[in-house]
Specification:
about 100 residues; 3 helices; single chain; about 0% strand; mainly alpha
Length: about 100
């Protein structure tokens, strides 16, 4: 089925869903990295526990969004992950892809 045959409202809703998934993936990925940096400087076991729990939440959100994107839009996912890698390398000098 060509894109022209899909009603406009359905295309728009679909594009909004994809954009929401991309945003969720991007936010979870960057939040995870910020927490990782914070964890490196953590002083207490309680703080480490708190940070690792948050990191697990972001990791799950990332992989849920990734799985949904990979199943329907693998080319967009690949492009997004490449962009994220570059962004993390610029933001986090300690980042290793």
């Amino acid at each position: 089925m060509s894109l022209e045959m899909i009603p406009y409202n359905e295309r728009r809703d679909n594009e909004l869903e994809v954009m929401e998934l991309e945003t969720a993936l991007r936010n979870a990925s960057l939040a995870f990295e910020y927490l990782r940096v914070e964890l490196d400087g953590s002083q207490t076991r309680m703080k480490e526990f708190e940070l690792t729990e948050k990191m697990e939440t972001y990791k799950n959100a990332y992989f849920n969004a990734r799985q949904m994107l990979a199943s329907q839009y693998p080319e967009r996912l690949e492009k997004l992950e490449q962009h994220l890698t570059l962004q993390k390398q610029q933001l986090f000098t300690c980042y290793n892809a």
